[in-house]
Write a structure and sequence with these properties.
By secondary structure, the protein is an alpha/beta fold. The chain has one domain (2-187). It has helices at residues 19-29, 55-61, 82-88, 109-125; strands at 2-6, 9-13, 40-42, 65-68, 94-107, 130-133, 138-141, 150-155, 163-173, 175-177. The strands form 2 sheets. It has a 5-stranded mixed sheet with strand order 1-2-3-4-10, with no helix packed on it. It has a 5-stranded antiparallel sheet with strand order 5-9-8-7-6.
Length: 189
């Protein structure tokens, strides 16, 4: 982790920091202003829903702006998690124009298969377009634009124990993803 100061503004670059690192930072800096009220936070561990962004850490740093370093439709590790983005929402600044956000959510088996069947029917009806890959383990919509809202990728229909859905939404918050917007350093003041 690296802390950068520019005038009175503070930036924290977290890289692949996990919960243990965040717990250490909370313990070390909770009684100081060293990492409180950040102008910008590069979200720990690409916004992983399993290893990043503890509640104590979020409430300590209270960032005005977030950058999540994750590519668009990243399906290998399912970054970022929807719960991580939602956890930062109250702290980030509001913006006038909504911007695109993508986030993964784990889903129950039955609900996942119902959604996959809905996609098959919707493709037959011509209401959505998608591409299957890896022997029906992944469905990726091919008709997605910045304005698309809803499910855009289904992952894990056969051999995976966990089932995941990638959602795209429009949010009016200072939360940006490098794969959707610009590289991380674009956001530095």
């Amino acid at each position: 982790m690296t802390r950068v100061s520019i005038g009175t503004e503070k930036i924290l670059i977290c890289g692949d920091a996990t919960r243990s690192t965040q717990d250490f930072l909370h313990k070390a800096y909770a009684k100081t202003d060293f990492i409180k009220n950040l102008a910008l936070l590069q979200v720990p561990h690409h916004g992983s829903g399993f290893t990043a962004s503890t509640t104590k850490f979020i409430n300590l740093v209270k960032p005005k702006m977030l950058v999540i370093s994750s590519k668009s439709q990243e399906y290998r590790f399912h970054h970022p998690g929807e719960s991580v983005i939602d956890a930062y929402m109250d702290h980030t600044d509001k913006v006038k124009d909504a911007r695109t956000s993508q986030a993964w959510k784990e889903m129950g088996r039955d609900a996942f298969y119902r959604l996959a069947d809905e996609w098959v029917e919707a493709k037959k009806n011509g209401t959505i377009k998608y591409q299957e890959s890896s022997g029906r383990t992944r469905y990726t919509r091919t008709d997605v634009t910045d304005d698309t809202v809803g499910e855009i990728l289904l992952e894990g229909t056969n051999s995976y124990r966990s089932k995941y859905v990638l959602y795209q939404r429009r949010i009016k918050r200072e939360i940006r993803q490098t794969g959707l917007h610009h590289h991380c350093f674009y956001y530095f003041p």
